[in-house]
Amino acid sequence: MDKFFVLSLLGMLIVACGVSGSIEPDGDIDMIRELENFDIGGEDDDVVDASAVPVWRSERGSKVLMNVDSFNAVGDGVSDDTMAFRKAWETACSTSKSVLLVPKGGTYLVNATTFKGPCKDDLVIQIEGTIVAPDEPEKWDPKFQRQWLEFTKLNAVTFQGDGVIDGSGDKWWAESCKKNKSRPCKGAPTALTIDSSSNIRVKGLTIQNSQQMHFTIARSESVRVTEVRVSAPGDSPNTDGIHITQSTNVVIQNCKISTGDDCISIVNASSGIKMKGISCGPGHGISIGSLGKDNSTGIVTKVVLDTAFLRETTNGVRIKTWQGGSGYVRSVRFENVRMEDVENPIIIDQFYCDSPTSCETQTSAVKISQIMYRNISGTTTSKNAMKFACSDSVPCSNIVLSNVNLEKTDGTVETYCHSAQGFGYGVVHPSADCLTSSDKYSAASDQTEVPELVELHLPTEHIVHTEL
């Protein structure tokens, strides 16, 4: 990091320390250095070119094509092609350098299935056609209550293509307790799940109209998702776009997500999550959490969102935890984010309660600290452009704001703080003075600036689902 930046920031932290009495300059310098150095690498160049995949095995060991049609798949959208997919998988998984092909032009009806590894080396799942789920919840196999297409125990596998995975979710949404209050709250399947796997690449697919979550990455490491499109109506309940749980070293890059819930959600035991070039909306924004439900422990660390556009979402960048939980969220950087008509652009909510009944007041909480918001701009539809609603007993700390400019087209904006500590430098609009004072609100008329930094130009065995 530039020496001038470090010295200037140190001076600013000393000033902040005098105001709040709770900031340790050396520790915060280390924290910001860590966040600055945690960057997203370039896109992998080892994804297989679909046009170059041959249909035979050569003496040199070229790719071996396993077309699901060759295993008696019909592809008319009506006939049950589940057995054909299972047989194609068994053959492809046991054959080195194979390609399991779902060909273009077909619509394949497939029931809930787990595709298990480990498999032979260099397996590619090439989806060019459409895979569609049965649309009747009453006929769903109860053994697969939360999964539709699940891939587990894989290593070095590539999923790619211009095809579609369609969850046929309309009837599931109609039966959700969030749309039909007379119905009980219960889980529904995730369209695509990658579980207990490593070195996975997913590129180019469209996942749409899932019964609940669209794409879950669970208990996995070294997963890269690029140019994936997720689509569902804005009123479809619990249809998170990409859900990351118990996973490390995950990169989500150049993805366009439109859903009825979080575009991206990151939950317990996840670390090293990097998101770049994300388009989100409609939806509930990009969220860490929820964490801590039912007095559970939640831990999420080292998360970066760099470059995103959110339009007409209910939240922008959000951290949400339930009362009564434990654990921590720390070392998070949200930067280079543009928002358009977002209801809650920046929000930390430690009183999250996604329940048909009110939640009990509790003193324990997931600790939230070392959260940086940098280069964030745009418009909001509510007066609280920034909201830090933190626990009385476990306050939020080391919240850093830099170059934040949020406006409301038809009124003034404010910052709400409760039990939150931190500081801002550069232009911070609306003011976030409440982070270091007893005031619960800061008005938009005052901008928080630190003289030393005004001229500084910074460089730009079951998966646990905690919500129904």
Key descriptive features of the protein:
468 residues, mainly beta, Pectate Lyase C-like, 2 domains, 19-stranded parallel β-sheet, twelve-stranded mixed β-sheet, disordered N terminus
Question: What percentage of residues falls in helices of 4 or more residues?
Answer: 10-25%
Extract low-pLDDT stretches.
Answer: 1-23, 44-60, 444-462
CATH class of the largest domain: Mainly Beta
Total of helices: 4
What is the overall silhouette?
Answer: globular
Number of separate structural domains: 2
Mean pLDDT: 86
Seen as an oligomer or otherwise, the chain set is single chain
What is the first-to-last residue Cα distance? 44 Å
- Find the CATH superfamily of the largest domain: Single-stranded right-handed beta-helix, Pectin lyase-like
| CATH architectural category of the largest domain | 3 Solenoid
User: How many strands?
Assistant: 31
Name the beta content range: 35-45%
Structural class: mainly beta
CATH topology of the largest domain: Pectate Lyase C-like
Main beta-sheet strand count, sense and barrel state: 19 strands, parallel
Cα Rg: 23 Å
Catalytic activity: (1,4-alpha-D-galacturonosyl)n+m + H2O = (1,4-alpha-D-galacturonosyl)n + (1,4-alpha-D-galacturonosyl)m
Active site: 284
Keywords: Cell wall, Cell wall biogenesis/degradation, Glycosidase, Hydrolase, Repeat, Secreted, Signal
Protein name: endo-polygalacturonase
